[in-house]
Amino acid sequence: MNILKNYYKYILKYDFVNKFNYKNINQIPEIKKIVLNFNCKNCDIKKIATAILALELITAENGIITKSRKAAINLKIRKGHPVGCKIILEKEKMDFFLFKLLNKILSELKNFKGFPTKIHYKNNFSFSLNDLINFDELNSNFYLFSTLPTLNITIVYNTKNSEELFFFLNSLKIPLI
Questions:
Q1: Pair 68, 83: CB distance under 8 Å
Q2: 87 in a structural domain
Q3: Are the C-beta atoms of residues 90 and 31 closer than 8 Å to each other?
Q4: Average of pLDDT values for 129-156?
Q5: pTM of the predicted model, to two decimals?
Q6: Could you report the per-residue pLDDT of 100-113, keeping only the tens digit for each?
């Protein structure tokens, strides 16, 4: 079993019950899924192909190419053309990626102090990573992945208010400033 899953099951659940006085164990918040997303502004198929390859190497899951819903003349995007790619992680793969993100990737980022605490409650926590070369899977082929766009990471959870959210993020040791 994953370290984060054990931590959630044996420690975090009891902390939530003691702090928020839940009457039912199903009220305890948990992470539902993690969405990794690359948005490519131009419709260059080479950039989208390298972005989906990078996502598949990082997560060992099959990626989904996202297509535009509407035409955007100022961005030169036609309706139905590819504009990015995404992967949705759930269960064990989500736990493994979150563990790797917290313990390896965020700790190796230069000049990273934490995420701002001015988060509006939306049932998700989103942030972006520009420096993707810290992933070991991408480091071996630096020349191929050096021009990747920004990776957007969204962690979806089921908390009911911002106090639960901040307690949840602090207990997972996600750095907040």
A1: yes
A2: yes
A3: no
A4: 81
A5: 0.84
A6: 888 888 777 777 77
Q: What is the mean pLDDT of residues 56-78?
A: 79
Give the pLDDT of residue 34: 92
Q: Which residues contact 148 (CB under 8 A, 6 or more apart)?
A: 38, 50, 51, 54, 132, 138
Do the beta carbons of residue 29 and residue 17 sit within 8 Å?
Answer: no
Structural domain for 55, as ranges = 38-170
CA 20 to chain centre: 26
Own/partner pairs for 50-57, CB < 8 Å, 24+ apart? 50/144, 50/145, 50/147, 50/148, 51/84, 51/85, 51/148, 51/149, 52/85, 53/144, 54/132, 54/138, 54/145, 54/148, 55/85, 55/86, 55/87, 56/87, 57/135, 57/137, 57/138
Structural domain contains residue 44? yes
- Does 63 reside within a domain? yes
The total number of structural domains that make up the chain: 1
Q: What is the pLDDT of residue 12?
A: 87
Tell me what the mean pLDDT of segment 57-67 comes to: 86
Q: Per the structure block, which two tokens stand in for 174?
A: 């996600």
CB contact at 8 A, 85 and 61: no
